[in-house]
Each structure stands twice: as structure tokens, then as C-alpha cells.
Amino acid sequence: MSKLKGKVAIVTGASKGIGAAIARSLAAEGASVVVNYASSKAGADAVVAEIGKAGGKAVAVRGDVSSATDAQAIVDAAIQHYGKLDILVNNSGVYEFAPLEAINEEHYHKQFNVNVLGLLLATQAAAKHLGEGASIINVGSLVTRIVPPGSAVYTATKGAVDAITGVLSRELGPRKIRVNALNPGMVETEGTHSAGFIGSDFHNQAAAQTPLGRIGQPNDIASIAVFLASDDSYWLSGEHLYAGGGAR
């Protein structure tokens, strides 16, 4: 039986990588999905087409979550197409590594605007429509545990995601809305390929330090997102689930 039949979900940053895998998995479990993208319309359309081919329902919606107007428009599109909203996956994120001496205002604001402000704006817009049993999933990162050199700003954004998750679980808990963080370790995506991580010493070191012996794949994370979106996790809120194959 489909775990999410009749549910409506928004997945931000869902045109590729982890977001795309989450969108496909939610749809496979019966949810109608808004596949949000900021720039890759072709990627988002491809995800929607895959979902449709598999018998699911999805629509691609452009929007930059760091803009309050865009964040509201993404939520409005979900209501317009499907009439309600039950699940929000705050997956949109950017990362850029730099040593302390290279950090500047642009490096800082680029990441905080999307990773932190974007999460807040999307949640603010969505919360008006979420009811009892709704689930908000904030995609954080294992980086807050392993704190690698050169990641001060990125790690700070994901630390903020963890903190915000706790705060919002208390704010929204009285409305029976659950808020949890899903924190992946290193995952093989288009982004980690283009950043040069895959096949690098960093990749090899990450795999060697992971008890399960490899880095993650997008579907490894998507299956946990389905759990957090479903009633199977009805008694979890304010939690940080680390999904890194045992890496610490």
C-alpha cells in the first residue's frame, strides 16, 4: 500500500541529485509532487516526465527560495495544482569551500541566502497551508559532525539548519506538524562530480572512513525522506537523522 497516497509534497531544488531522487520516491509512494527548480528547467521537466511515466503525478515550478516572492509562488503553485499541502522538503542548497583567508561577503551571502534564508522563507509560506500530520524535512549535512577544513561558511549554514529544525519543531508542534533534519554524508550527484569530489582523495578518504564502505547514492537518502514524510515517523520531531553509512 502506498505510504503517501493522497498527499501533496513540495521538494525544493529537485531538478537533480538528492532532490530529484526524493521527488521520484515520494511520487512512487503516491504523493503528488511539486518539483521546484531555480535554473534547470530541463532537469526539472525530466524528473516530472520520469514520475509521469511511472504513473505518478508531478509538476515543475521555477522559483528561487531565497526570494520571498518566489517562495510564496512555489507554495501557491502547489495549492493551485493540487488543492493542499502536506509535505515540504527543504532541499535547495549550494556549497562552496574556501579557507579562512579567502572568505568574503559574496561567499558568505550566497550560501546563507539559499541554505538558511531560503529554508525559512519556504517554510514560512508553506506553514500557512500545513495541517495536522504534516511533515517538514530540512536537508542538512553530516558536515556539521566532520567539520572539514575550508568549509567554515557551508558548515555554518548546515549548523543553522539543525538549530532551526529544533526551533520550528517547537513552534509548529502544537499544530501537530513535524519538523526533522535529514543530514546526508557525501553523496554521488551531479554536483559532487562537477566539484571534482568524485574520484578524488577526498572521495577515497570519505569512503574509507565510512563503516559501510562507500559514499552515498541519492536513493539512499530518498528512502529516508519517504520515512520522514510518512506516518511511519509520526512520533519523530526535532530530530537530526544522520545518513552517512555510519560515518562520524
From TrEMBL:
The keyword Aminoacyl-tRNA synthetase does not apply. PROSITE patterns: ADH_SHORT. SMART domains: PKS_KR (SM00822). The keyword Coiled coil does not apply. One of its GO terms (molecular function) is glucose 1-dehydrogenase [NAD(P)+] activity. It is an enzyme of class 1 (oxidoreductase). Its EC number is 1.1.1.47. Keywords: Oxidoreductase. Residues 7-190 form the Ketoreductase domain. NCBIfam families: PRK07231.1. PANTHER family: OXIDOREDUCTASE, SHORT-CHAIN DEHYDROGENASE/REDUCTASE FAMILY (AFU_ORTHOLOGUE AFUA_5G02870), SHORT-CHAIN DEHYDROGENASE_REDUCTASE FAMILY PROTEIN. Belongs to the short-chain dehydrogenases/reductases (SDR) family. This is Glucose 1-dehydrogenase. The lineage of its organism: Bacteria, Pseudomonadati, Pseudomonadota, Gammaproteobacteria, Lysobacterales.
